[in-house]
Write a structure and sequence with these properties.
The complex is a heterodimer. Chain A is α/β, with parallel strands linked by helices. Helix content of chain A is 37%, strand content 23%. Chain A is built from 14 helices and 13 strands. In chain A, the strands form three sheets. A six-stranded mixed β-sheet of chain A has the order 6-7-8-3-9-10, sandwiched between helices. In chain A, strand 7, helix 8 and strand 8 form a beta-alpha-beta unit. In chain B, helix 8 runs antiparallel to helix 9. Chain B has one domain: MetI-like (MetI-like fold). The chains are: A alpha/beta, B mainly alpha.
């Protein structure tokens, strides 16, 4: 259980003329992953750090499960929320196991009671406990350290996880692998996650919801496909690359292009399949249309014709449509 | 009369009060070391949090290191303190403060801000963060400073004899004038224990420093010269 509501949240630092976070209202549903996307200085990290009261808002409220954070003891609040940062910040003098155990430890849980949990968490993040348990942070690569960072954040089994550009300092290959791992872990643990990033692809890939921030203001919030299909303004459209059909159809599912079943020869494919992948299948199999199913029931079809019509009709089109010869 | 038996006789002669001189010497050293730590560590903690104090502290310390200690001894006698143990100890404290102060500042500033942020973000109280994270990381660096400073104090303390503080320096200074008459014995009864004490301080405190260094950081915790605290923030030597 952890639903977060930002209610007209503003943060203005003393001595500045412009608010770092300006009247943001946003709801993050329980068990979903919300990406705070924006350029540096857009206020996304400030917004994140207000959730666990590392920063207190100048105005407005943040409610976790309906309870204002300002009515809670900040120390107890932080202990109930997982926290992962880009610079990782493992404690260099402690072993990996001791690092993972930090929060249970300060909560007063005995060491032998948490040993099994530490091993389970290391397994979860893809590190063999027997090999890594007693190592020290500096003996690990950056990617491995961030896996430990994630395990540490999950140690006290918080409902809510805050991640501030956790993969920002990793190389491209490791970053992608970590994103896949996070997606896999999230399928198991179903935490409410607020994730700060400036990487559009990361936001599109991981987010159930993306909140686009600019100059301290929330420009638009919604599922990736919604933002791509209906960007609120030019800024969002340009930021997400909504005018690029490739990017659009990589993240929009065939459910948006569903037409009545009429002679589909291929499939069935799941309704959540990205359009781009369906397109590839259509081309590869030379089928005119693929049946689309949801929960095992065929609900319609997606056709080469349909995709082509949609591409030509796409509103606000700025690049030429894909040269597809049907 | 050979030197060794001369030394023996000198030490055994109650008129020379060898035990008393040794005791005075140890007291001077101990007072100077303890007061250096007591003054420099809190000052360093304060300075690490404030840029202006840090700037002042490091620069005044630097200046202190540039002035010869013998000048301090001389200067101390011109103050109300006059001559004796007090001005000597104060001059030695002035000598002993900079390495500890600078190492404390460098050690604290060398802690990766991400580590402190993580500690806070995970819900450690300020006291928990200090005891569980900052202290274990900074103590080895401070200990290195104490070691440098203590050795300097022990090695310099014989000079205190020139301002009437007594101690082993009396034998050295007194003996130098008499070498041609009675041989090196009197110099040696002063010099040998000073060397032994300096070495003992060096190796004793090195062992202490090592014991205070968390296992994870030991590879990178050598003398840790002033300012070299980067090994403490995890960016130091990468293990294979």
């Amino acid at each position: 259980m952890a639903k977060i509501e930002f209610v007209h949240v503003t943060k203005q630092y003393p001595g500045t003329t412009r608010a770092a976070v300006d009247d943001v209202s946003l709801t993050v549903a329980e068990g979903t992953l919300c990406m705070l996307l924006g350029t540096s200085g857009s206020g996304k990290t400030t917004l994140l750090r207000m959730i666990n009261r590392l920063i207190d808002p100048s105005a407005g409220q943040i409610l976790i499960d309906g309870k204002p954070t300002t009515e809670q003891d900040p120390i107890a609040l932080r202990r109930s929320i997982g926290y992962v940062i880009q610079q990782i910040g493992l404690f260099p003098h402690l072993t990996i196991a001791e690092n993972v155990r930090v929060v249970p430890n300060i909560l007063g849980q005995p060491k032998d009671a948490t040993a099994a949990r530490v091993d389970a968490l290391l397994n979860l993040v893809g590190l063999d406990p027997a090999e890594y348990r007693n190592r020290f942070p500096r003996q690990l690569s950056g990617g491995q350290q961030q896996r430990v960072g994630l395990a540490r954040a999950l140690a006290a089994d918080p409902d809510l996880l805050l991640m501030d550009e956790p993969f920002g300092a990793l190389d491209a290959i490791t970053r992608e692998r970590m994103q896949d791992e996070l997606r896999r872990i999230q399928r198991d643990v179903h935490k409410t996650i607020v994730f700060v990033t400036h990487d559009v692809q990361e936001a599109l890939k991981l987010g159930d919801q993306i909140a686009v921030m600019s100059d301290g203001q929330l420009v638009q919030a919604g599922p990736p496909a919604e933002l791509l299909l209906h960007p609120a303004d030019d800024f969002v459209a340009r930021l997400l690359g909504a005018d690029n059909p490739l990017s659009l159809y990589e993240h929009v599912s065939v459910a948006t292009l569903l037409e009545p079943l009429a002679g589909a020869t291929g499939g069935p494919i799941d309704a959540a399949t990205p359009v781009l992948q369906a397109l590839l299948t259509l081309v590869q199999t030379s089928a005119a249309a693929l049946a689309v199913s949801r929960d095992g029931t065929v609900v319609g079809q997606v056709s080469l014709d349909g995709i082509q019509r949609r591409l030509r009709a796409a509103p606000g089109q700025k690049t030429p449509p894909l040269p597809i010869n049907a | 009369m050979n030197t060794i038996s001369a030394i023996q006789q000198f030490i055994q002669n109650p008129y020379n009060d060898y035990g008393g001189h040794m005791q005075t010497f140890l007291i001077i050293c101990l007072l100077a070391i303890v007061w250096s730590v007591v003054i420099a560590v809190p000052l360093g903690v304060l300075a690490a949090q404030n840029r202006r104090i840090a700037f002042l502290a490091t620069n005044i310390s630097g200046l202190g290191r540039a002035i010869p200690t013998i000048a301090f001894f001389g200067f101390a006698t011109t103050t109300a303190l006059g001559i004796g143990i007090k001005p000597a100890v104060i001059a030695l404290i002035v000598l002993g403060i900079p390495p500890i102060l600078l190492n404390t500042i460098a050690g604290l500033q060398g802690i990766d801000p991400a580590v402190t942020d993580a500690a806070r973000g995970m819900g450690m109280t300020p006291v928990q963060a200090l005891l569980r994270v900052q202290l274990p990381l900074v103590v080895p660096v401070v200990a290195a400073g104490v070691r440098t400073s203590a050795v300097q104090i022990v090695a310099t303390a014989p000079l205190a004899a020139i301002i009437g503080a007594g101690g082993l320096g009396d034998y050295i200074l007194g003996g130098i004038g008499l070498v041609s008459l009675i041989g090196p014995a009197e110099v040696l009864v002063g010099v040998i224990p000073v060397i032994a004490l300096a070495l003992l301080t060096e190796y004793g405190l090195a062992a202490l420093q090592r014991a205070l260094t968390p296992v994870a950081l030991r590879q990178s915790a050598q003398r840790a010269p002033v300012g070299a605290a980067s090994a403490q923030n995890g960016k130091g030597v990468m293990a294979a």
